[in-house]
Amino acid sequence: MTNSExxxxxxxxxxxxxxxNSTFYSKRIPLALPLNxxxxxxxxxSSQTHRGTTAFIDARMDLRISFSDLWxxxxxxxxxxxxxxxxxxxxxxxxxxxxxxxxxxxxxxxMSLGAIVTTANPLNTxxxxxxxxxxxxxxxxxxxxxxxxxxxGSCISIILDRVEPIQRAPGGLKVVGILGEMMKxxxxxxxxxxxxxxxYTAMLLYxxxxxxxxxxxxxxxxxxxxxxxxxxxxxxEQPQQTFLCTVPLFHTFGLLNSVMxxxxxxxxxxxxxxxELGEVLAAVEKYRATTLILVPPVLVAMINKADQIKxxxxxxxxxxxxxxxxxxxxxxxxRFMEKYPTVNVYQGYALTESNGAGTSIDxxxxxxxxxxxxxxxxxxxxxxxxxxxxxxxxxxxxxxxxLKGPSIAKGYFRNEEEIITSEGWLKTGDLCYIDDDGFLxxxxxxxxxxxxxxxxVAPAELEALLLNHPDILDAAVIPFPDKEAGQYPMAxxxxxxxxxxxxxxxxxxxxxxxxxxxxxxxxxFIDSIPKTPSGKTLRKxxxxxxxxxx
Length: 550
Hints:
The protein is built from 16 helices and 28 strands. The protein is an alpha/beta fold. The longest helix is centred in the N-terminal third of the chain and has 17 residues. Belongs to the ATP-dependent AMP-binding enzyme family. InterPro entries: AMP-bd_C, AMP-bd_C_sf, AMP-binding_CS, AMP-dep_synth/lig_dom, ANL_N_sf.
């Protein structure tokens, strides 16, 4: 027997766990990767065959682009930014734009040249964007006329997404092209695609920074090819279906999971420039969307407004909601299923650093495992490690999740923080356990656990209970400093309109359901809970706010 055959014989088929090396292996279809090392992710995606016709729909403009026109536009834009602008292999290019069908066109063009895409949140201030620019040193930026002023002090050449009535670059910025014109320009005939090795950097996406300063994550073409290959092995959606993307395209959840992966199957993606629940549901009705890509806060909003939604919109074609960005509790999932019994909720788990590798729910049967975020992605391996002792744990034991596989990023840009071990394991910082059937359950962020008199309290557990209260729209739990206990749980709560819910009632509601050390001991009411665009609660911001009130 070969080593791989011996290893396979030691793996428990029920949960994927191998006692010989304390590693969990995926139960999914094996991941097939191309053998060619000189391959860029754009070429890999464009080479996939399918029967799809419409690639993207811009819901705001009701503008459609076919797959054939998409790849024609990618080639033309690549030709222009190479020959006219001078972008070369290894150059960094910044994308600063609200959601638009032009973003994937531009990003695929840049990566086809071996240049590196970095994205910025359009809601960020000029100061915040300048920090990212200083760190990544982009040679070119793609943006809109409305956002161009945010990079006006950077001396970067820019490409605008469209022509304004009066063409004047804000702050003296050098406009070197209009994307709409580039998409129409006939290619020069000169070869622009230099050989790109799979080890070359393709993307420099900045992590959300929920527990600290945002850091650039280095992802290679090989990482992204592995991500896309996973969706060829495990189709994200049935071919020629239509799904609606409301998550931001500057984030890995939107750009990689919702856009690049779907191009391989012929699925149509409807893109909205921003999230507004009414616009989302109107688009679901208009385009007969079968799948919605959401973050947990949006799903909660759909629960709370279910009666109004059903009265105003026809969502009868909707069959699936795919939810990621933050854990979704069993209670919230069950409430959604009660309100929308014909729609299945499929959760998933991944990080910017894992490029889509993690876990997913891929069937109705799997979705009934409430509270789980799915089975390991094909090609992924996992370990559960005790954060205190470093010991590797087994089935149903809680510890930090470590991930390994071909999608795992190369590391952080200009940052010495070691999150990837010498053996290639990504330390996720998430506390979890994997059950008898191989399903992953996220307990909480390791760095955000509350230490009360030596006991560990998971904020996510208390938040899930709070969201089950009929008068609570949203909630976040943070550690509040205490001289005797060290820390204790404090809740920030957003009440439903006209609710008279008070601190005492919230404390009593939780105390009846948890052990004494988990009780919430302080409550503050707030208009909205601060979150990242991917739906993660910004507990660090609430901690700073709470401490400032001391």
